[in-house]
């Protein structure tokens, strides 16, 4: 029985996804200077021409890659079951300690020196930042109408980004665990008691 060939549209979608994932991995491992379209295409197992068919420029490929993976991570965050604040804080911190953050950081550094890349990365980071903040507010059960709550949530995300930077050079797991515990206590005070998944003590 002959093998069933996937429809052309499905193959095209799979090629595009493979290129995006390969681009993020290359950025995280080799940085901007070492991540060319040819390198990504080879890693994805396609020709350079196929890569350029989907992404005409290098900037298209790498900004698209970071946006794609950021959307995947946001979807995973949104799909988290309702849980306590400690778990939510840990999940948000995890956003900044993996390959996605390393890849995004390489894009930031490149954008600081590449005029044509800078506006695209700035717009992308603003969009990703807004979405991450929105998800954090929802997961934490935060009421941003209360004074200082918005700034507290943003401070959490800024802290998580800082932990991600610290983790680039050394394994910061132990300190990160202590910081997450402390931030959870601070959030309970600033946001009001317990999170959506925490069990409130009986009176």
UniProtKB/TrEMBL annotation:
It comes from the Bacteria. It holds the Pfam family TetR_N. InterPro entries: Homeodomain-like_sf, HTH-type_TetR-like_transc_reg, HTH_TetR. SUPFAM superfamilies: Homeodomain-like. GO terms for molecular function: DNA-binding transcription factor activity; transcription cis-regulatory region binding. Residues 36-55 bind DNA. Residues 13-73 form the HTH tetR-type domain. Keywords: DNA-binding. This is TetR/AcrR family transcriptional regulator.
